[in-house]
Write a structure and sequence with these properties.
alpha/beta; Aspartate Aminotransferase, domain 2; Aspartate Aminotransferase, domain 1; seven-stranded mixed β-sheet; binds pyridoxal-5'-phosphate
Amino acid sequence: MSFNPADNIQDLQYFGEFGGVNPSISDSSTYTFLHAKTMMDTFEGNAEGCYLYSRHSSPSNLFLGEALAAMEGTETANVSASGMGAITPTLMQLCNSGDHIVSSRTIYGGSYAFLKNFAPKFGITTSFVNITSLEQIEASINKNTKVLFCEAVSNPLLEIADIKGLSKLAKKHNLKLVVDNTFSPLSIAPAKLGADVVIHSLTKFINGSSDTVGGVVCGSQEFINDLRNVNDGASMLLGPVMDSLRSASVLKNMRTLHIRIKKHSENAMCLSENLEKDGIKIIYPGLKSHPQHELYKSMYNKEYGFGGMLAFDVGSLVKADELMELMQNRNLGYLAVSLGFYKTLFNAPGTGTSSEIPADEQKEMGLSDGLIRFSIGLDNNIERTYQEMKKCMQEVGVL
Ligand code: PLP
């Protein structure tokens, strides 16, 4: 594959104000002008290289945005204070009252709740579909549909979206394809497969240290300009701006992303293979038993593997809780939401990160109470982790 996201990040060159190897942090909310006219020009977006006010733009946020755009292969990007602060302005920018969205039904609970409960207040409705069925998706498109929304690898069921197929549908019906790539940075490059807009919660793998929330919208210059428009730009006016100190620290963490993703993927693959051999029904895109294994392979950037997320069902919430508490006691990881940390994180999404999805809909999409979602850590010796995990599973009687 000629497009390598990590090489693109590496190829960027930044200098700090005094020749530092890291760009200087713009620790200011507002900026002075020698001439009042330049201030007016900057406000109108006509003074290249000048800054007015840090909700509009700041050097630190632009540096981080540039690195993320290089990673996704888009013209540019706009960073935000959280993943939700990237998703909601994007959808509100693309839709007006009366418009319709076709969304995957297996998405992060917050995105689901926004589409189901909040967007209708503004006259925007959503049909939730099985993202693995292009027929069902096409059948859900109507004359008001403006957006196709999905996650490249879905939270928490790890369904894989056929981004090329979705992009064809989007073009055919004149829709924008918006892909949340939070679970698969580097491994999948949705814009290269035809997505119009690519979103991340930076909170997860990209930052990788579970010390901040953050988000990004990667897209065309035109769309990012729209989001930032002072008169009607959703990011500008809803105001989910990232703080410069944080964007500087996320940028520094991004430099090790390729190494971390390889290790997360290697560890998740090893655990999945071993646990599957033990008879556990593992959901992991790297396994041949995953229904979209071949699809993932047709899209991925091989060297970054199948990602760090896996899931399996232990039969009931009681068993899931018992196992998670034991694994935490044995220091195999933390019973916590979120993902992309150096330690393994696990939770039961039916009652946690997907609890916004009503029980009957969880059932329909195959999200059972006993499902545990794992974000596999950077464990140095994954064989040792596997042996310990196996013991825990035997102790609670799920193996
Ligand atoms: N998208 C996905 C796939 C997520 O898992 C999450 C959070 O869990 C989000 C978006 C929201 O991101 P944030 O919590 O940074 O707002």
